[in-house]
Design brief:
single chain; 306 residues; alpha/beta; TIM Barrel; 8-stranded parallel sheet; 4-stranded antiparallel sheet; 20% strand; binds flavin mononucleotide
Length: 306
């Protein structure tokens, strides 16, 4: 089951999707997080953020919408209060980093270089760049290139993962920009901008009006995007993909692996059944046994299309 993410060997491909498993202790009563390949934290920003007003989450027919607004305790409190807990976790930690300027990302990445339990930084680029007029970093290849290159300069020890937004015309363009600027790995996808309306009140359900759609509804699009990025960008560049989007069962995870993902992160499914973090790798091992594969990695990108 072991996988290699840019030179970092993980016991298995399973990870938590950023923002869906807190800082680690929140789910400790339900799952044995030591059995994860890696734990991915919620987005951390330079300064604390209160996040958006409530309602911030709503269930939809095949997933959920969230507009948390990057609520988090900020870098200083994260280092003082959460890192000691993460040191006891027994799994490698990837810290997801968010910001509203390139300087924000670089400042957080620099400090995380000094924290041994942190082995990787995942850039959440689905954030508005305040200096560039509020346009999301992740929707413009030039901004993706700029922020990735800047953090690359500050990130020498940690694996640098760039998390791609699906809210683009061609995700291969932003993927290529991240890889050319020095990303060690890509994770995809983040949520789709979406909306739910309370027809009785004739108002948006979320206080923020719009939110990010996740869960089973997005899985086929996410699988397609992993396939596109793998075939157009990362296979030749030898850059691993962490597949994210509606994974709940081993067969979902297998779709991502066949499409080209080496790692897997689970988000929305944790709200329904956190134990899927254990049942998915068991199902993957069973599939390998039934089909005569000795290593999970033999399956990566092995989709037959001809
Ligand atoms: C409640 C919630 C909070 C999230 N917070 C973050 C976050 O802080 N940073 C981030 O990069 N992605 C965040 N995401 C996106 C997830 O990490 C993931 O990319 C997305 O939900 C798709 O995976 P899923 O369908 O398995 O949930 C969040 C998703 C949800 C549902």
């Amino acid at each position: 089951m072991s996988v290699d993410i840019a030179g970092l060997k993980l016991a298995n491909p399973m990870m938590t999707a950023s923002g869906t498993c807190g800082y680690s202790t929140e789910y400790a009563d339900f799952v044995d997080l030591r059995r994860l390949g890696a734990f991915v934290t919620k987005s951390i920003t330079r300064e604390p953020r209160a996040g958006n007003d409530y309602s911030r989450v709503v269930e939809t027919r095949a997933g959920m919408l969230n507009a948390i607004g990057l609520a988090n305790i900020g870098l200083d409190a994260f280092l003082a209060e959460k890192v000691p807990q993460l040191e006891k976790l027994g799994a490698p930690v990837f810290v997801n980093v968010a910001g509203t300027s390139v300087d924000d990302y670089v400042a957080v990445a620099e400090q995380l270089e000094q924290v041994p339990v942190v082995r990787g930084i995942e850039l959440n680029i689905s954030c508005p760049n305040v200096k560039a007029g509020g346009l999301q970093f992740g929707t413009d290849p030039e901004q993706v290139r700029h922020v990735t290159a800047a953090v690359r300069g500050a990130c020498r020890r940690n694996v640098l993962i760039v998390k791609l937004s699906p809210n683009v015309t061609d995700i291969a363009a932003t993927a290529a920009a991240a890889v050319e600027a020095g990303a060690d790995a890509l994770s995809l996808i983040n949520t789709f901008t979406a909306m739910a309306i309370d027809v009785e009140k004739r108002r948006p359900v979320l206080a923020n009006a719009t939110g990010g759609l996740s869960g089973p509804a997005i899985r086929p699009v996410a699988v397609y995007m992993v396939h596109r990025v793998y075939t157009q960008v990362t296979r030749d560049a030898n850059v691993p993909i962490i597949g994210i989007g509606g994974i709940q069962y081993a067969r979902d995870a297998l779709e991502f692996i066949l499409a080209g993902a080496t790692g897997l992160a689970v988000g929305t499914a944790l709200f329904a059944d956190p134990t899927c973090l254990h049942s998915i790798p068991e199902g993957l091992a069973d599939y390998c046994r039934r089909h005569g594969f000795r290593r999970l990695t033999e399956l990566v990108g092995s989709l037959q299309t001809a």
